[in-house]
Amino acid sequence: MRTSTIWVLGDQLNRRIGALATADPSQHSIVMVESAATLSRRRWHRQRLHFVLASMRRFAEELRAAGFDVDYRRSSTLRAGVVDHLSEVQPAELIVTEPNSWDGRALAESLDAQLVRSNQFLCHYDDFAAWSSGRRSLKMEDFYRWRRRTLGYLMDGTGDDAQPAGGQWNFDHDNREPPPADTPWPAPPRSRLDDLDRAVIAELPETAWGDTPNGTWATSRRAALGRLRHFIADIAPMFGPHEDAMTLRSWHLAHSTLSPYLNLGLLLPGEVCDAVQDAYDAGRIPIASAEGMIRQVIGWREFVWGTYWTQGPEYRSSNALGGERPVPPVFADDAPTEMACVRACMDGLRDRAYNHHIQRLMVLGNLGLLHGVDPWGMTTWMWERFIDGAEWVMLPNVIGMSQWADGGTIATKPYAAGGNYINTMSDYCGSCRFDRRARVGDDACPFTTLYWDFLARHKERFDRHPRMARQVRAAERLADLDAVRTHAVDIRRRLDEGRL
Fold first, then answer.
1. Do 303 and 172 reside in the same domain of the chain?
2. Which of 116, 136, 160 is the last residue of a domain?
3. Are the C-beta atoms of residues 451 and 420 closer than 8 Å to each other?
4. Are residues 489 and 437 both part of a single domain?
5. 56-67: pLDDT as tens digits
6. What is the CATH number for 173?
7. What is the CATH number of the domain that holds 82?
8. How many Cβ atoms are within 10 Å of 333's Cβ, its own excluded?
9. Mean of the per-residue pLDDT values for the chain?
């Protein structure tokens, strides 16, 4: 009897996901494909490529150890690899868990694959579409509260009478403290590189960017579970208060750094939330930290996932603010910069393929927004560089949140800010040669100058906006606004030329 083939994609690396959950070695064989076109298509970070490829190869070994016949192929494209497998093996049918991208789904459908409903997220995109249907606006907080009630995390009581633990839904206000004077966070574990790691590193394309992998990122489910245990035991109790802080003293602070493992399937969102809930119930994690982590997983992450699918492929071309500039050289080529905040973020990105969410949003994304970068260019740049990058992650986060290119579908206002915000939430400004308070002159902070120019450039769009009108009016009252706008032209030119 011919077996059926399960095609396992590189971001579905878990025996509990979709088609693999009921797979039987006597009835199913496996095909996995490394695509040369995918590897060479973009200037990926070395650690991102290593993370994905090493994780795929380890998972293939785990499936073989479980008795599956695994056809692990390296091919010119994903399509070519699967087509060659079908031609050679001639299985009874091709089965695939619903892919995590529009293009992946289209490819699976073109190959007449049987699609198995994915359980990699706690809210399937069909359920998100049903929830969002007919709503005038999509608010993450509304979605989050619905999911809290549905899933029961951090709830006192059951059913319609259930109330949020701690008496409130959201402790975000308590979780915006600046960097503390000391650095209390234990260093994350590291994995020891083995022969498989070294083989992957030796094969990485010369076009790859960033430092060589050093064990920062786990590449197996066993190691990823170890990272989860470390977070729950040593980090989660301190997660909440400083989750928006930025400091030169720590690249990770109290962040979980679990998103890469969730995005490849090495961890599942339910087991992360269960671990947080259990630790909270045992009194090991305070409510503000537990709620902050639960909100990141079942709130924002799954809201982004659902938004990606409901918006459709045309979302890629969103450009409400008309950004046209290329990604500046300080991002594209790691050019030297005198902006201490940007330098700190780029150093971390080069070293580990990682910045936490405020560094991405309020430093790198903010600079792209104020500079007027093309939103799709900013999206693809972040997709290539970050360890947890994926199209479904980056499109809503960059197009919608960071660059406000969707005109408010996700974020009610642009996340634009000057140097004062960065100074409040970080210790970057103390070592910077620019003055965060100055708008004009050689020492003026580029963020501050571009912020006021941004408000002036987009006055017509935001002068009646309920959350932006006050800032627009403040810009109009600046006695030196003309000088600020002239200086902004010079700053943008220097950014484009890699001289800032």
1. yes
2. 116
3. no
4. yes
5. 999 999 999 999
6. 1.25.40.80
7. 3.40.50.620
8. 11
9. 95
pLDDT reading at 137 higher than 90: no
The answer to whether the CB of 405 falls within 8 A of the CB of 375 is: yes
Give the full edge-to-edge strand order of the sheet including 114-116: 70-75, 28-35, 4-7, 94-97, 114-116
| Helix, strand, coil percentages, rounded to 5, for the chain | 55, 10, 40
Residues 217 and 141 in one domain: yes
Which element (helix H / strand E) includes 32?
strand 28-35
Tell me the per-residue pLDDT of 240-261, one tens digit each, with 9 for 90 and over: 788 889 999 999 998 999 999 9
Range of the domain at 49: 4-116
Indicate if 44 and 137 belong to the same structural domain: no
Q: Are 95 and 170 contained in the same domain?
A: no
CA dist 292 and 275 (Å) reads 14
What are the pLDDT digits (tens) for 47-106? 999 999 999 999 999 999 999 999 999 999 999 999 999 999 999 999 999 999 999 999
In terms of domains, do 238 and 130 share one?
Answer: yes
As given in the structure block, the two tokens for residue 442 are 């050689």
Residues 209-231 as b or e (16 or more Cβ within 10 Å = b): bbeebeebbbbbbebbbebbebb
Q: Is the pLDDT at 329 greater than 90, yes or no?
A: yes
Q: CA 432: distance to chain centroid?
A: 28
Residues in the chain: 500
- Three-class SS state of 166: helix
pLDDT band of 1, cuts 50, 70, 90? low
Provide the domain count of the chain: 3
CATH number, domain containing residue 381: 1.10.579.10
d(CA 231, CA 247): 19
- Token pair in block for residue 220: 């197996």
CB-CB neighbours of 2 under 10 Å: 11
Residue 66 tokens, joined? 């479980």
Q: Which residues contact 465 (CB under 8 A, 6 or more apart)?
A: 413, 472
For the CA atoms of 273, 277, 278, 282, the dihedral, rounded to the nearest 10 degrees, stands at 150
Number of other CB atoms surrounding residue 461 within 10 Å? 15
Which of 116, 147, 162 is the C-terminal boundary of a domain? Answer: 116
Tokens (6 digits) for 203? 């094969």
- Residue with tokens 């991405």, as numbered in its chain: 360
Q: Are 141 and 164 in contact (CB under 8 A)?
A: no
- How many Å apart are CA 402 and CA 369, to the nearest integer? 7
**Residue whose structure tokens are 């990926």:** 44
